[in-house]
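**Discrete fold encoding**
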Amino acid sequence: MKEQSNVLQTYLKLMNTVKLRFDAITLVQLKQDYKIPYPITQIEFCILQIRKILETIALGSLVANEGLYRRHFNNIEKMWNGRLILNDIERVNPQFYPIPISIDTSRETHVFVNKKDGFLTKEDFIDIYNKCGKLLHAESPFSTDKENESMYQLYETYIPAWCQKIVALLNTHLIYLADGKTMLYITMQTSTGDLPSGNVFQKIEQ
């Protein structure tokens, strides 16, 4: 039981870093705390946070095994292709991807209902991760100022839509861990505004 609790707390810690990165994106987008002398760095900062959030999502299901987590974490540092990252994790845990749910409270016993749309899919993950990678490199000196400006303006429009999809995926979700026996129920929104919270469900052997 203690081991399960430790796994849950480790995963919740990851989810809290996701929330903190979202907070950082929001502050930078709203320009509430400071003025940025070189505006495109604001967009680059947000894109970096989104990319790190995606990596956290990919690795989350491996938290039950520290060695496994660290090995794939190191692999991700060498990968620039979202599809390769997902394939790498999926070989270890075919059910690694979060399952976004809502709670049907109309019944006496509340029921988990899988969301059908509006959330970050695996295909979205790959597309967004690869797009983020493009912006994390220096722009070509042979591109015109107008071309660079248009590219950054396009990415600035991407940020809110991408964040909305990620929130829809993680807000309330289930995650199967790589041990094949453990599932976590996670809610990112808590009444106190503290850390995300959750519960552990363990498969009962027949």
